[in-house]
Amino acid sequence: MSEDKAPLSDERMQTMYRDMLRIRRFEETAFELFEQGEVVGGIHVSIGQEGCSVGACSTLNEDDAILTTHRGHGHSIAKGTRLPEMMAELLGKATGLCHAKGGSMHIADVSKGHYGAHSIVGSNMPMGVGIGLAFHFEGKGQVAVIFFGDGAANEGSFHESMNLAAIWKLPVIFFCENNHFASSTRVGYATSVADISARAGGYDIPGVTVDGMDVLAVHEVMVEAVDRARRGLGPSLIEAKTYRYFGHSRKDPQFGPYRTEEEWNEWKAKDPLLVAEKILGVSEEEKKAHDEAVENELKDALSFARQSPEPEPDDVYEDLYA
Amino acid sequence: MPEVKMRTISYSTAINEALHEEMARDEKVFLMGEDVALSAISPATAGLGDRFGHERVRNTPISELGFTGAAVGAAMAGYRPVLDMRRIDFMMLAIDPIANQAAKLRYMLGGQVSIPLVIRAPEGGGSQNGPTHSQCLEAWFIQVPGLRVIVPSDPADAKGLLKSAIREDNPVLFVEYRALYSLEGPVPEGDHTEPIGKAAVKREGSDITLIGIGSQARSCLEAAELLAGEGVDAEVVDPRTINPLDVEGIADSVRKTGRCIVAEEGHKSGGVGAEIAASLQEAAFGALKTPINRVAALDVPVPVHTKLEAIVLPSTEKIVAAAKKVLS
Nearest CA of chain B to the CA of A116: how many Å? Predict the structure, then answer.
């Protein structure tokens, strides 16, 4: 039995819970700052989808790669991205991960194996295949995980990327967070299949649908896919069904023409943090300790960001050419 | 300095030599593209698959978006991919990874990555291949900060600039002119490189400057020969790279001659010639005795019929006619 297949230790489960909380509270804080006008540019929060990011990234090593999307705060944090520098990027500071050039939609921390949030829907998939190809050349058993939404599953890049990864048996995991809405277009309208995982069949790779509100269920299917990739057996497609609590971006309404409050409440009853508390066995006392630690961490991150300088005019030419 | 030994080889052989030498020099360099591993398909990639194996000389499916994006990813992860696009027209399926990603990632990610990627893009008309297999599209890409765009017009530059492109840590669009593949010329033996961002005077003269891009640098040289027969001493300047554009290098020639034609195989509107003409009037307006004249493809698609194609594309004769007009 490989280490990843062993039962999770209590310590790891506590870490998973805390990471979910870190994401939830980071994004709530970021959204408040956004509403107060302190964030430079737009943000897209993934609140409601924390089971996916933590379930998936909890199976990875630091030298494994992820690529995410415009809705990427959760994956970034779950992969170990430095929070102070991430918060500084949201506030448009020179100390930000992207030197205030990329903003929320391009958070990256390559030192932690985070190869970037990529804001053009579907663009990260071929690039993830290329990182998988580099890992294949290196032969050290690293894997590349590509996060994307249900909307991206209708891009040509999704199909080309799955085909390339399949024919070359690359260590790549296509992780679809089906949050049911591409901006405001419902997945059932835009997508020819009931389960996006069914599209794996077209490329003769494993495809599985999992409850994205259940962090352990996500973790378990990822363990299988990661093991397969590390052993050189090729890519997998995972579809985690989840729900976006907030609007698409900025100040889009939470409800409105494309969904009802009833549907929203049904999903909220399965909130990934509530589920995690139960299945990971987090006691009231532990919860309190996590709350306190996370608030302190966020306070420090925000204070770092607020105290950081803005970029200088000359910085406009920096980082263009190597 | 030791004497540099020259020999005569073709443009496509020069490209082939550069690929062989750079793959042998740096194991991070690898090739991808449709049919690249099969020597029979293109003289530019001959022998590479057999020599370096099909892992490093990697055939791809017809999947331009997929394999171009993959090359950008591999570059982010420390490799130096060289892509073969077969034709620049096919590259239109892969604009996102080039213009949105490769060109911007380093900037957008605050310098955390570099993208040492070379995209070889053969292009050009004259072979009755019609509107979607004859285009010259380099002008599109000077609108994309973050890319280098290289347009070699002879075997020595093809080899020297491709080797420099592969060693460059930024994404490079390396345009090859299909009409020049069989052109022969002198190329230094050994590790010959040329600097990116330096124009070259290909023929010295004093009456008029003919600036030619890629295939039209050849046409300018031929035009200069014809003009010499009529007593006109034309200088031919090849920018060689159009991002960065060596404005000073070009302007020096115009300051000397006071007259200028810019010739390119791309369409006239919004073309490389338009950019060069604008840059020259900013840099050397006082030296110009006459307006700058552009020779380019007409603003219609390149039709397949031989007669119609010749009407649309620029040529030596059109450059001669433009020069005479400017000199009259």
Answer: 7
